């Protein structure tokens, strides 16, 4: 107990390294320390594209856009390209149907039934293209439904013709489904799905051809094999385009975010120049000269000038004090007693900021820091937050309960620990005889416990109070070759 009291008394003396918060000059602030094959966002458009030459046809799901590309636009353009591929594929497939029907016109009842089947295929194709235009990339069940329609068309068409007629105009479902299988590569996802769809079409075609014409199975293989190359190629190209679009949109989003941050920094710099050239110069002139007769008011102006200089020079760099940014609460004002040659680390600057705030609230706080060379840069952000928050609460307790208007803050790096102390020469109390208040138990001990730290309270009636905060530090970096 006697050793701790002597330490408390020594901390309150004015050593060469002491910095009065109201009398010091401001210190400059330190420096800042989509998967492959996945969908790319691309909702459908809300109206027709301007200048299109296809009046009366469904319009692509993405409108042309003028100006620089925006994040997400590459994915939307890929969706639009898929729509065009689907539209062109269905148009080519229906063109084959039209040629076949034109060849067999006047074929009696078979022709009428074939025309009805062709009309059903045209309606299904129009509905598919229109749905893609309205909602953008469709779910996979739409691809399976389209595949089922194609298989049903092969079976129905084979039932309309018999024998060698299967190999004439009457079996138009074969060229239709062959070209229409482009939709399998556009609508389905995953290699096994895109591979299974054409195999299904090939099997249905071979069985229908064999049962209708009676030709041997090997004769149907060449035509059936034609299905196997279309959907996989379309699917591979579509996957590659989606992947590249996702990467492009991601890079554009990062670039846009960086540009926005740069704009904020430029605006802050402009404001800082205005504050420095006008308000700050005036405050510093008033604080240094004999313009203000009242010493307390002159110190107050100097403190506010220090806060403003800290804000101007540090800008967005902010050490959190009690859950708030010190730039909004307080800022360091001055050198720390060892000449102020080194730039303040986060913890050091935060303690100076805290002292400045308390000075403006009527509590004169002295900050004692070790000689030059103390490595406060080892204190990580969360540990500094906890130490500053606990120190803030300890100074609050001084103002509420100590009955004095002075306090001392000291800080050091002791081996693998950061240590901060708050000392006052106030009324003191007997820790064992008084239950801890919420400020000490939650705001101080709770904060320190979150970072693995400890709190030591040394007090006695009439002898003041010392609160010592200790928090572990990460080991220093090991430099190779050193």
Automatic annotation (TrEMBL):
<feature type="compositionally biased region" description="Basic residues">
    <location>
        <begin position="1"/>
        <end position="10"/>
    </location>
</feature>
<feature type="domain" description="Histidine kinase/HSP90-like ATPase">
    <location>
        <begin position="386"/>
        <end position="474"/>
    </location>
</feature>
<dbReference type="GO" id="GO:0000160">
    <property type="term" value="P:phosphorelay signal transduction system"/>
</dbReference>
<feature type="region of interest" description="Disordered">
    <location>
        <begin position="460"/>
        <end position="482"/>
    </location>
</feature>
<dbReference type="InterPro" id="IPR036890">
    <property type="entry name" value="HATPase_C_sf"/>
</dbReference>
<keyword id="KW-0418">Kinase</keyword>
<feature type="transmembrane region" description="Helical">
    <location>
        <begin position="110"/>
        <end position="132"/>
    </location>
</feature>
<dbReference type="InterPro" id="IPR050482">
    <property type="entry name" value="Sensor_HK_TwoCompSys"/>
</dbReference>
<feature type="compositionally biased region" description="Gly residues">
    <location>
        <begin position="28"/>
        <end position="48"/>
    </location>
</feature>
<keyword id="KW-0472">Membrane</keyword>
<protein>
    <recommendedName>
        <fullName>Histidine kinase/HSP90-like ATPase domain-containing protein</fullName>
    </recommendedName>
</protein>
<feature type="transmembrane region" description="Helical">
    <location>
        <begin position="83"/>
        <end position="104"/>
    </location>
</feature>
<dbReference type="InterPro" id="IPR003594">
    <property type="entry name" value="HATPase_dom"/>
</dbReference>
<feature type="compositionally biased region" description="Pro residues">
    <location>
        <begin position="58"/>
        <end position="71"/>
    </location>
</feature>
<dbReference type="GO" id="GO:0016301">
    <property type="term" value="F:kinase activity"/>
</dbReference>
<feature type="transmembrane region" description="Helical">
    <location>
        <begin position="169"/>
        <end position="188"/>
    </location>
</feature>
<feature type="compositionally biased region" description="Pro residues">
    <location>
        <begin position="472"/>
        <end position="482"/>
    </location>
</feature>
<keyword id="KW-1133">Transmembrane helix</keyword>
<keyword id="KW-0808">Transferase</keyword>
<keyword id="KW-0812">Transmembrane</keyword>
<feature type="transmembrane region" description="Helical">
    <location>
        <begin position="144"/>
        <end position="163"/>
    </location>
</feature>
<feature type="region of interest" description="Disordered">
    <location>
        <begin position="1"/>
        <end position="74"/>
    </location>
</feature>
<feature type="compositionally biased region" description="Low complexity">
    <location>
        <begin position="11"/>
        <end position="27"/>
    </location>
</feature>
<keyword id="KW-0902">Two-component regulatory system</keyword>
<dbReference type="Pfam" id="PF02518">
    <property type="entry name" value="HATPase_c"/>
</dbReference>
């Amino acid at each position: 107990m006697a050793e701790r009291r002597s330490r408390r008394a020594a901390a309150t003396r004015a050593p060469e390294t002491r910095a009065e918060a109201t009398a010091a000059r401001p210190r400059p602030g330190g420096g800042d320390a989509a998967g492959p094959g996945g969908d790319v966002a691309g909702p459908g458009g809300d109206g027709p594209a301007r200048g299109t030459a296809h009046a009366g046809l469904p319009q692509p799901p993405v409108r042309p856009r003028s100006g620089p590309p925006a994040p997400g636009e590459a994915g939307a353009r890929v969706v639009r390209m898929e729509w065009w591929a689907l539209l062109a594929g269905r148009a080519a497939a229906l063109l084959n149907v039209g040629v076949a029907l034109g060849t067999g016109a006047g074929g009696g009842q078979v022709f009428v039934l074939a025309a009805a089947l062709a009309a059903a295929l045209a309606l299904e194709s129009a509905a598919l293209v229109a749905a893609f235009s309205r909602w953008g990339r469709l779910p996979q069940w739409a691809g399976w439904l389209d595949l089922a329609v194609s298989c049903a068309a092969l079976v129905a068409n084979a039932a309309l013709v018999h024998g060698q007629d299967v190999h004439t105009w009457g079996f138009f479902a074969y060229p239709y489904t062959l070209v229409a299988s482009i939709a399998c590569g556009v609508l389905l996802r995953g290699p096994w799905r895109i591979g299974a769809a054409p195999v299904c079409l090939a099997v249905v075609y071979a069985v229908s051809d064999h049962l209708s014409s009676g030709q041997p199975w090997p004769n149907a293989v060449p035509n059936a094999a034609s299905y196997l190359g279309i959907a996989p190629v379309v699917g591979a190209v579509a996957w590659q385009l989606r992947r590249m679009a996702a990467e492009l949109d991601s890079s554009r989003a990062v670039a846009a975010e960086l540009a926005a941050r740069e704009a904020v920094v430029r605006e802050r710099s402009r404001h800082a120049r205005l504050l420095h050239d006008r308000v700050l110069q005036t405050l510093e002139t008033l604080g240094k000269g004999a313009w203000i007769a009242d010493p307390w008011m002159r110190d107050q102006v100097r403190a506010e000038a220090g806060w403003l200089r800290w804000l101007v020079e540090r800008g967005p760099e902010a050490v959190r004090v009690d859950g708030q940014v010190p730039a909004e609460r307080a800022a360091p004002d001055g050198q720390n007693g060892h000449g102020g040659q080194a730039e303040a680390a986060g913890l050091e600057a935060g303690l100076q900021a805290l002292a400045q705030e308390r000075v403006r609230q009527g509590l004169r706080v002295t900050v004692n820091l070790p000689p030059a060379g103390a490595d406060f840069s080892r204190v990580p952000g969360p540990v500094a937050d906890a130490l500053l928050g606990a120190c803030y609460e300890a100074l609050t307790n001084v103002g509420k309960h100590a009955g004095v208007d002075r306090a001392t803050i000291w800080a050091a790096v002791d081996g693998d620990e950061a240590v901060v102390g708050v000392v006052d020469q106030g009324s003191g109390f007997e820790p064992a005889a008084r239950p801890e208040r919420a400020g000490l138990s939650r705001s101080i001990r709770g904060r320190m416990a979150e970072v693995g730290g400890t709190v030591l309270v040394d007090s006695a009636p009439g002898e003041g109070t010392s609160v010592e905060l200790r928090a572990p530090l990460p080991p220093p970096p090991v430099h190779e070759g050193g």
